[in-house]
Amino acid sequence: MSARHRILDPAARSPTKNNLCALAVMTKAPRAGQVKTRLVPPLRPEEAAQLNVCFLRDTAAAIARACGTTARGVGVYTPIGAEAAYIDILPGDFELLPQRGDGFGDRLSFATADLFQCGFASVCLIDSDSPTVSADVYAEAVEMLSQPGDRVVLGPSDDGGYYLIGLKESRRELFERIDWSTERVLEQTKQRARELSLDVSLLPTGYDVDDAATLRRLCDELLSDQSERDLAPNTHKFLAALTARKKL
Fold first, then answer.
1. What are the distances in angstroms from CA 37 to CA 34, 46, 56, 159?
2. pLDDT tens digit string along 138-164?
3. What is the pLDDT of residues 86-144, one digit of tens each?
4. Fewer CB within 10 Å: N-end or C-end of the chain?
5. Residue 128's domain spans which residues?
6. Closest CA to 239 of 51, 90, 89, 56
7. In-domain check, residue 231
8. 244 occurs within a structural domain
9. Rounded CA gap, 145 and 171, in Å?
10. For the whole model, what pTM was predicted?
């Protein structure tokens, strides 16, 4: 078995990590019945958890390819005590950071603040529901944040939310007065950025896979004859085997 990942401690403040950007995926330990519950049915709880593992592996692999010398992969996880769950999911050079806070906005805000406290020069928070986002997109986010001037980088999802938010400093206000899990999230976040006089840089639009309709969309994208064979390979393999046994 691989070694456990290093756990970051915001209380032990580090010097800036050579201007590194944290490419940080927000994740809940992939336990059956606790993740991807909106996909049950058509999936069983065990299948939904396995799919979540595939999403994490593909997202982490794309992040790892984007890192180079300018970024570092981080898993921002919950619950505390679930660190071993990531040993065979996230690459060994990823670091872990425990989530804190109650609501979703609090968790994003605290994750951003904690990553800056750990010494990162910029931070991207990434969802774990968009396995088809490519390494090039994550690399583009890092490049945008390296440019002069303060800004927020957003990766829009076509449901009105976002799959990535990138910042050059902690901005609690970007996570306040947001109607989470609605089609208003992206526009409200852009409004908060305007109120803070921040430039907004947009990445290509993606989509979240969190219900039966978006799961069918993912199957159509990955399992078609025209699909890119290197796109989300873990998810592709799992869905190919799953659809051979059952209709989604």
1. 7, 10, 16, 18
2. 999 999 999 999 999 999 999 999 999
3. 999 999 999 999 999 999 999 999 999 999 999 999 999 999 999 999 999 999 999 99
4. N
5. 6-207
6. 51
7. no
8. no
9. 14
10. 0.96
